[in-house]
Amino acid sequence: xxxxxxxxxxxxxxxxxxxxxxxxxxxxxxxxxxxxxxxxxxxxxxxxxxxxxxxxxxxxxxxxxxxxxxxxxxxxxxxxxxxx
Length: 84
Prior knowledge:
- By secondary structure, the protein is α+β, with helices and mostly antiparallel strands.
- The chain has a single domain (3-83), classed as Alpha-D-phosphohexomutase, C-terminal domain (TATA-Binding Protein, 2-Layer Sandwich).
- The chain has helices at 14-29, 57-83; strands spanning 3-10, 36-44, 47-54.
- Helix 1 (14-29) packs across helix 2 (57-83).
- The longest helix has 27 residues, at 57-83.
- The protein is elongated and about 45 Å long.
- It starts with a strand and ends with a helix.
């Protein structure tokens, strides 16, 4: 049985979506564990979609948690640099 999840991220700023995509895309190209994989795409200029596939729920939860932390860090970095 495979566990899957989809994460949709929206922003009014297309530059934020591109920046987060560029920050996360390299992480999706490396198979860190045989227990799961992730894919990412820009649906439109204001929407980023991530797909998670895992062999068990624990792996799925761990992958999503990691990516949510990276997403939060990317958005925080973008907003801090915009204030400078």
